[in-house]
């Protein structure tokens, strides 16, 4: 059987708008959304009025920053505030197609429009094509994932095996008998299928027929990706989104970041102030999807990343999110500055004599103190380390040099021992 070409092709013209068209497109979509939401969502009206934000004054994309960010955590409380999910919705619950419940607990409304969750272009970019037989291994009840990921497959013209999670032996049998070509699920479940399949004596490349996999929901390493791609002889790409808004980004064949989905406008912001940061700086992903039913304008996801506007060989012109480098709530704010473990790791990478490290934060007398512990047998570059550290992280730590093996085996990058009593 000849394989389909899954490496090229663009689904819609929106994906290849040139820069000025793209700016205009965002401008029109946002203006339209803001006007509509202000008119029909009680919560948006309250929020805009409180911030004295007037939709008429929205002239450039930069004006969006005058709307306060909406923290995902706030949704739980807001949704309990009255009908139409606390006024966040612009229509009645009975006019929706489905209502899900995701952890939090937060209700996730799904409207009756086509491609509501916006994953179709992402699935096409991953490599799904008409005629594929796809096994969806996400749960189909309460949480939206299973049904959410069926929608793009239906649009592309694939047939779906709604397998849901678990029953690994049955999953493998179905894959073999139906000659399933596509997988949708978490990377760890695909790895589990590989291991179980090998235990059963299957040749994953000959007895199974997988050619493409869309994964999401977990971080994974490039090593895991290449292992799975080799084991099954498939293309594996990931998507990034939330149960509130659906698709936010997805990888193309060239896997150099996540193309921002064309149904959203994404900003990278300072987690406290909501002010957009410069290109390349790490901050919180703040997303506005062009969804008039459930207009979560400037939803702060709690995920940390950065944005890249450089061209991609695939031809798609949307900006790309880099890796998700962490969560806002696991990042320590020390002396008012955010300290991200990956930034510390970058500093340490320049000192090969440092075997392991840990940051400890305390606040004797209510004042933050940061100690950087490093393990090294003989360390002579103290001044250089402190200089680079302060340049990158903006704080000068107390440095403590330890003998190798002193830190506990499972060391947390940032140990926050502060108390507030
Ligand atoms: Zn690309």
UniProtKB/TrEMBL annotation:
InterPro entries: AMP-bd_C_sf, AMP-dep_Lig_C, AMP-dep_synth/lig_dom, ANL_N_sf
Any one Gene Ontology molecular-function term assigned to this protein's record: ligase activity
Pfam entry (one): AMP-binding_C_2
Entry keyword annotation includes Ligase: yes
Ranges where the AMP-dependent synthetase/ligase domain occurs: 156-288
Tagged with keyword Ligase: yes
Domain AMP-dependent ligase C-terminal as annotated: residue spans: 336-409
Domain of life where this protein originates: Bacteria
Keywords on record: Ligase
The protein's name: AMP-dependent synthetase and ligase
Organism: Desulfonatronospira thiodismutans ASO3-1
């Amino acid at each position: 059987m000849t394989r389909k070409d899954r490496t090229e092709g663009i689904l819609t013209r929106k994906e290849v708008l040139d820069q000025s068209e793209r700016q205009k497109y965002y401008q029109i979509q946002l203006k339209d959304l803001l006007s509509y939401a202000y008119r029909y969502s009680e919560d948006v009206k309250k929020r805009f009025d409180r911030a004295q934000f007037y939709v008429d004054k929205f002239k450039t994309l930069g004006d969006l920053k005058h709307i306060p960010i909406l923290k995902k955590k706030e949704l739980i409380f807001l949704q309990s505030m009255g009908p139409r999910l606390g006024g966040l919705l612009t229509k009645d619950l009975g006019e929706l197609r489905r209502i899900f419940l995701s952890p939090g607990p937060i209700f996730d409304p799904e409207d009756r429009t086509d491609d509501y969750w916006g994953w179709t272009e992402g699935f096409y970019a991953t490599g799904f094509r008409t005629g594929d037989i796809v096994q969806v291994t996400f749960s189909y009840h309460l949480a939206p994932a299973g049904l959410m990921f069926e929608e793009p497959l239906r649009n592309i013209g694939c047939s779906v095996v709604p397998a849901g999670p678990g029953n690994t032996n049955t999953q493998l049998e179905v894959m073999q008998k139906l000659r399933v070509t596509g997988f949708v699920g978490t990377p760890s479940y695909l790895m589990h299928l590989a291991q179980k399949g090998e235990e059963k004596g299957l040749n994953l490349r000959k007895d199974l027929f997988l050619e493409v996999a869309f994964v999401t929901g977990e971080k994974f390493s490039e090593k895991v990706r290449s292992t799975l791609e080799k084991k099954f002889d498939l293309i594996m790409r990931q998507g990034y989104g939330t149960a509130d808004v659906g698709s936010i980004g997805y990888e193309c064949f060239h896997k150099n970041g996540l193309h921002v989905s064309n149904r959203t406008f994404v900003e990278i912001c300072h987690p406290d102030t909501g002010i957009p940061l410069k290109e390349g700086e790490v901050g919180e992903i703040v997303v506005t999807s062009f969804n008039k039913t459930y207009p979560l304008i400037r939803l702060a996801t709690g995920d940390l990343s950065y944005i890249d506007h450089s061209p991609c060989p695939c031809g798609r012109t949307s900006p790309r999110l880099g890796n998700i480098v962490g969560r806002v709530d696991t990042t320590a704010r020390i002396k008012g500055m955010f300290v991200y473990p990956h930034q510390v790791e970058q500093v340490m990478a320049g000192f090969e004599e440092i075997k392991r490290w840990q940051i400890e934060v305390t606040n004797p007398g209510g004042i933050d103190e940061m100690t950087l512990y490093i393990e090294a047998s003989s360390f002579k570059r103290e001044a250089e380390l402190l200089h680079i550290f302060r340049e990158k992280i903006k704080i000068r730590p107390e440095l403590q040099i330890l003998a190798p093996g002193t830190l506990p085996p499972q060391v947390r990058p940032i140990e926050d021992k502060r108390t507030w009593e």
